[in-house]
Amino acid sequence: MKPDGTPPLRQSLGELRPFLIVWAGQLVSALGSGLTAFAVAVVVYQRTGSAEAFGLLMFAWIFPALVLSPVAGALVDRWDRRRLLIVADTGSGLLTLATAALVLNGHFEVWYLFVTSALASAIASFQDPALTAAVAAIVPRSQYGRAIGLLQVMQPVSMIVAPVIAGVLIATIGLGGIMAIDGATYLAAVGGLVWVAIPSPRQAPSTEDAAAGARAALRRFVAEAAVGWRFVRERPGLLGLLVCIALVNFWVSFVNPLLAPMVLSFTTPVQFAAVQASVGVGAVLGGIAMGAWGGPRNRIAGVLAAIVVIGVTMAGLGIRSIPVIAGLLFVWAAVSPLMLTSGMSIWMTKTPQELMGRVAAVRRMVLMSMIPVAVLVAGPLAERVFEPLMMPGAALAASAGALIGVGKGRGVALMFILLGVLVVLTAAGGWLVPSIRHVERDVPDAPHPHPDGEPVPEAPPVPELAAAD
Question: Which of 4, 71, 170, 455 is 20 to 30 A off residue 37, Cα-Cα?
């Protein structure tokens, strides 16, 4: 056992075997999804040439998740999580294959992608909290850091590998062929789930007569869905941590729509591709490092320290240099798994198994709600306020312009500097709030199932469950 309580890596591999089987299948599926995501972006740009179309596509993905997350969380805690994940992966695969069939048969319009994106988002609303709950059930608590670190690797691996492969395939087999490959990769995800037993939480016996009627059942379901939010609200440390991360998520969500215009204002698309690659490489290395290390013993310190580093690197993006920007984004991506892994470990440790799906859904809904707001505000704020202020002879040309330059893209650079400062201040504010700083001490750990899948031992009732009407 290491000084921080994390078992040695050799012992960890044995304890993580069920998780690694599930993770391997999900990784293959993520690579397939990455192929489709890249191909869809190319096709939408070729068909529309509109940046607005990309914003609408993002909205089509986010909106169903925001609406369905509370309902999905309640159902995840009711249903068998293994079966739910199998159904979700199967549904995603069939949806992708159906779209591929339309494309391959020449019956395709761009608006189909908006429909399929919304349907995929609805499925993910169930899939994501179910996967979080499943991981918490099959991974020993001492291995949370390593498991979550490996989960963080999936998306960046897809970011690095998928565009290279998809760039070749889109010229040979087209969007339909790529989607067919993506649909087939879901077999790996389903296969991994079939081989692993995932224990479900013990359900409380119902005290209501089955003949009470649909209205009573609906009231009970709504109350169950609200329990996830009540659980968070009644624990100031967890609520404060959620608000802190939500604020960070809001500030950093400005980067996605604005980074490309800023970088391309003074360099070439080839160099911008190198900048994007640095993000994927950093995220992969950071995720692998967290998978091997497991994270710090003081997890809240790990969360807030990583946020400070992200804020500093974000502010540095205002420097007009491709090597500097690529290096900063590499560091940003490399430390992000520290924030995500440490934060998720806290949530999984403090949340009872019977509430894991609902709490995960609440957290996902709050964090995702920040993205569309930032995306909608970023463009107008940059084009109508900051960019005009940083043009030659404008109000800030002699002050801020003397430090970071003037002209096209410099207003966005100034925004990044200010937003980076706000990220650092958010981390400092989180540390200064005692309930957040001491969340690991003040919020008791929840009972956890045995790694071999034995039932969860009886535990004191969760107060908010008794209060739910």
Answer: 71
- The structure tokens listed for 190 are 């389903």
Spatial neighbors of 236 by CB under 8 A, at least 6 apart, are 435
When divided into structural domains, the chain yields a total of 2
Task: Write the DSSP assignment of 216-234 as a string of letters.
Answer: HHHHHHHHHHHHHHHHHHT
Structure tokens at 369: 């709600």
Q: What is the pLDDT of residues 380-437, one digit of tens each?
A: 888 889 989 999 999 998 898 888 889 988 998 999 999 999 999 999 999 999 999 9
Contact 391, 407 (CB under 8 A): yes
Are the beta carbons of 43 and 114 closer than 8 angstroms?
no
Does some domain include residue 217?
Answer: no
Range of the domain at 260: 226-446+464-469
- CA–CA gap between residue 313 and residue 261 (Å, rounded): 18
194 with 253, same domain: the answer is: no
Question: What local confidence, expressed as pLDDT, does residue 462 receive?
Answer: 30
Helix axes 81-104, 174-194, angle to 10 degrees: 160
Q: Return d(Cα 10, Cα 135) in angstroms, integer.
A: 20
